[in-house]
Amino acid sequence: MTESTTGTATRLDKLGVIVAAIALVGLALQPFALFRANRIVSADSVMLWAAMPLWQAIALIVVMVAAILIILLKTPVNLRLAVSIAAIAILAVMVGRSGYFLTPEDNAYARVSPGAGFWLMLFAFSIAMADAIVRKALSPAMRVFFLIVAAVAIGVLLWSGAWSDLSILKEYHNRASAFWREGRTHVELAFGSLAAACVAGIPIGILCFRVKKVRATILNSLNVLQTIPSIALFGLLIAPLAWVGRNVPGAAALGISGIGFAPAIVALFAYSLLPVVSNTVAGLDSVPRDAREAARGMGMTSRQLLFQVELPLAFPVILTGIRIVLVQNIGLAVIAGLIGGGGYGTFVFQGIAQTATDLVLLGALPVVGMAFAAAIILDALVEISQTKGKKGKRA
């Protein structure tokens, strides 16, 4: 290898090479937009240079190439972060412009969707942005601040009407009331099952920690439950819950039946137990022996030891389990749409049945956003609790 080749290689960022390759494929080889004469027919691919006025296309290509070069090379972290954010913002605006440019006037049936090229470039610059944030080692509060800014920016983009000509917004306008109703149901499924799992799982975890004889039996049973495929578990609950709804007085009035909300939340609760129980046990196991001995030396009872020493020190590990459950349940709640449980899965499965890709995205994208936001917020809370836990141990 020559000296010039070695020098070039050392100037390249390793992750940047991968990000740049993905972005270039999206820019040059994949369609930037998809055009349909109506919502269910096959789409025609439209490359970037045909998806908007030529001067706008040239400007976008120049900007994207410059951004790719900055990400490709070993550049300052602040510059990489700024360029990634700017590239994402420009892509978001220009895909809306392509919807306006490609939609024929006075045609309510035509649909324009972001193409694979847009999604690949968005994915590539999102990776670059996340990498820059990690390299900057931002505090938990700053990470949450970035999340809030991103949410506000998306809200402004939607409110401004920049995406009004894209088909996903047209699907939303046709189902606005249903969208928010199913959103509330999705939140109830995810957070309701999490709350029930915490109420039941933390005491079970304490029992497993205190009574070693039952630990293996309980954890193995929950492991077996976790291995059942989600669709199968939803199906298995239909018959017993239908029997309960028919034969138990007052059950039907509470909404318990073979399909709908009840089997969905029961299944999500069942999947939530293992992470909560196992992380409670792991957290209590991680409490230093010195802390317990000091508490006993102070005359604490077992109850005081549990609530004043063990659970506070185990809290970061328990919270990690709660984070796993919440992100998992936000995704799994989509399956509830198959059995009439509601949530954003309703749109996903309607879209699949109608071969309407944008209806699928109307259900899928909010789920991805909710899971992403939940992960960032709970990661920040875990880090904060770990910092406080270390201070408490030193004290």
TrEMBL record:
<feature type="transmembrane region" description="Helical">
    <location>
        <begin position="313"/>
        <end position="339"/>
    </location>
</feature>
<keyword id="KW-1133">Transmembrane helix</keyword>
<feature type="transmembrane region" description="Helical">
    <location>
        <begin position="221"/>
        <end position="245"/>
    </location>
</feature>
<keyword id="KW-0472">Membrane</keyword>
<feature type="transmembrane region" description="Helical">
    <location>
        <begin position="251"/>
        <end position="274"/>
    </location>
</feature>
<dbReference type="GO" id="GO:0031460">
    <property type="term" value="P:glycine betaine transport"/>
</dbReference>
<feature type="transmembrane region" description="Helical">
    <location>
        <begin position="54"/>
        <end position="72"/>
    </location>
</feature>
<feature type="transmembrane region" description="Helical">
    <location>
        <begin position="12"/>
        <end position="34"/>
    </location>
</feature>
<dbReference type="InterPro" id="IPR000515">
    <property type="entry name" value="MetI-like"/>
</dbReference>
<feature type="transmembrane region" description="Helical">
    <location>
        <begin position="79"/>
        <end position="96"/>
    </location>
</feature>
<dbReference type="GO" id="GO:0005886">
    <property type="term" value="C:plasma membrane"/>
</dbReference>
<dbReference type="Pfam" id="PF00528">
    <property type="entry name" value="BPD_transp_1"/>
</dbReference>
<protein>
    <submittedName>
        <fullName>ABC transporter permease</fullName>
    </submittedName>
</protein>
<keyword id="KW-0812">Transmembrane</keyword>
<feature type="domain" description="ABC transmembrane type-1">
    <location>
        <begin position="183"/>
        <end position="378"/>
    </location>
</feature>
<dbReference type="GO" id="GO:0055085">
    <property type="term" value="P:transmembrane transport"/>
</dbReference>
<feature type="transmembrane region" description="Helical">
    <location>
        <begin position="141"/>
        <end position="162"/>
    </location>
</feature>
<feature type="transmembrane region" description="Helical">
    <location>
        <begin position="359"/>
        <end position="382"/>
    </location>
</feature>
<comment type="similarity">
    <text>Belongs to the binding-protein-dependent transport system permease family.</text>
</comment>
<dbReference type="InterPro" id="IPR035906">
    <property type="entry name" value="MetI-like_sf"/>
</dbReference>
<dbReference type="InterPro" id="IPR051204">
    <property type="entry name" value="ABC_transp_perm/SBD"/>
</dbReference>
<feature type="transmembrane region" description="Helical">
    <location>
        <begin position="189"/>
        <end position="209"/>
    </location>
</feature>
<keyword id="KW-0813">Transport</keyword>
<feature type="transmembrane region" description="Helical">
    <location>
        <begin position="116"/>
        <end position="134"/>
    </location>
</feature>
